[in-house]
Amino acid sequence: MESKASRTLVKSAPELWELADDLARMEAWTSGLVLAEQPIPVEVTERDPGRLIAWRSRANGGDRHARVTIDLAEKGFGTSVSITAFHSGPDPGAADAALERLLDELGSPERRPFARG
Questions:
Q1: Helix (H, G, I), strand (E, B) or coil at 42
Q2: Three-state secondary-structure class, residue 50
Q3: CATH fold of 2-107
């Protein structure tokens, strides 16, 4: 099944990139997408720093799988973030909600990739 979400966030593409390009986050986001209780191991399939990151769950013999792409594009005073996921999540509404939570996490002012001096 396919799920999509997009939003313009008031952060720069480099800030968002530092948050999105994090293997532990990708594993947690993937588990939320397919309603797994534990983080799901993933492998990055495409990386264009500051613009695009894509990953898929690694084959582990289970039926929980996903392919996720996050696109970033500078837009005005922020960054347009588009997420597309192809997944085995059993509930389309839950998958859509998981993508919205992912956008919330990326846009959260408490989520900063680096300290400011």
A1: strand
A2: coil
A3: Alpha-D-Glucose-1,6-Bisphosphate; Chain A, domain 4 (3.30.530)
- At 20, give phi and psi (nearest 5°): -75, -35
3-state SS assignment for residue 108 = coil
Following DSSP, what letter does each residue of 61-79 receive, concatenated? Answer: SSS--EEEEEEEEEETTEE
pTM, full prediction: 0.86
User: Using one digit for the tens of pLDDT, what is the confidence trace for 4-38?
Assistant: 999 999 999 999 999 999 999 999 998 888 888 88
Instruction: Tell me how far apart the alpha carbons of residues 111 and 20 are, in angstroms, rounded to a whole number.
Output: 11
Contacts of 116 (CB under 8 A, 6+ apart): none
State both tokens at 89. 């999540």
Q: Measure the CA–CA gap between 11 and 24, rounded to whole angstroms.
A: 21
